C-alpha cells in the first residue's frame, strides 16, 4: 500500500492539523485544571483567614441552659397558678341540692 506523491500532499498537512488540534485540546484541559486549582487555593486561603463562629463552651453554655430551665420553670409556675384559680370556682364541683 504505497502512497503516491499527490496523496502525500493531502495527507501530510491533515496530520499536522490533527496534531495541532489535539495539542490545543490538551492545553485547554491543563489550563482548566490550573484555573480550578487556583480557585481552590484562594477559597482555602479565605477559609483560613476568616473567623468562624464557635459554639458556646463551658460557663457560657451552662448559663444558657440554666436560663432556659429557669424560664421554663417560671412558665410552669404561671400555668399551675392559673389552674389553681380555675379550681376555686364558687360552685363548680360542689354538691348543690335542687330538691328544695
Tell me the layout of helices and strands:
Blueprint: H1 5-49, H2 59-87
Number of strand elements: 0
Q: Which blocks of ≥5 consecutive residues have pLDDT under 50?
A: none
Question: Which term fits the overall shape?
Answer: elongated
Number of helices: 2
| Termini Cα gap | 132 Å
Q: N-to-C SSE series?
A: HH
Q: How much strand content do the residues show?
A: under 5%
In percent, how helical is the residue content? Answer: over 70%
The main β sheet shows up as:
none
The whole-angstrom Rg is 42 Å
Structural class: mainly alpha
| Mean of residue pLDDT values | 77
In short:
By secondary structure, this protein is mostly helical. 74% of the residues lie in helices and 0% in strands. The relative contact order is 0.04.
Describe this entry's structure for a reader.
It contains two helices and no strands. The termini are far apart. The chain is elongated, with a radius of gyration of 42 Å. The model has no long low-confidence stretch (mean pLDDT 77). With 100 residues, it is mainly α.
Salient structural properties:
mainly alpha, 2 helices, elongated
